[in-house]
Design brief:
The chain has five helices and five strands, in the order αββααβαββα. The chain is α/β, with parallel strands linked by helices. α1 packs parallel to α5. It starts with 5 loop residues before the first helix and ends in a 5-residue tail after the last helix. The relative contact order is 0.16. The model has no long low-confidence stretch (mean pLDDT 95).
Amino acid sequence: MSGENLHERYMRLALEQAKQAARLGEVPVGAVVVREGQVLGCGYNKRASDACVTAHAEILALEQACRRCGDWRLDGCDLYVTLEPCAMCAGAIVNSRIRRVFYGASDPREGAVCGIVRLFDLPYPRRPDYEGGVLAQECSALLTSFFQQKRGGDQ
């Protein structure tokens, strides 16, 4: 892992979260909230496990970070997520005042950062900066492998 930058390091933590989701049979998406080098929240998809439509990795990571901070405002925090956030998660990210979002795999069908809509580009009073493609190949491979197994494909 020498030569790995900070964004890749945190995305690898998000990938570990995603792998936990996969072990539960959940869509493997993981998220990590970081402020000044400290991980404040982690989450992975648990919609089926929790029977809850809002149990997305980003929402769970944001909730944990809010509890740790004792505030709903996550000013100065960055979010690392293995898949481009959906509209629900993008809305929560805007409302939480996350500073920057780094995501791995793009989601052209449901993504709300650069996919079907671009919520972070709307003129909200506060909106995060964003960067896609951080460890995109690894994030995409995990999702592809998961869905191949679910559909009874090879491996």
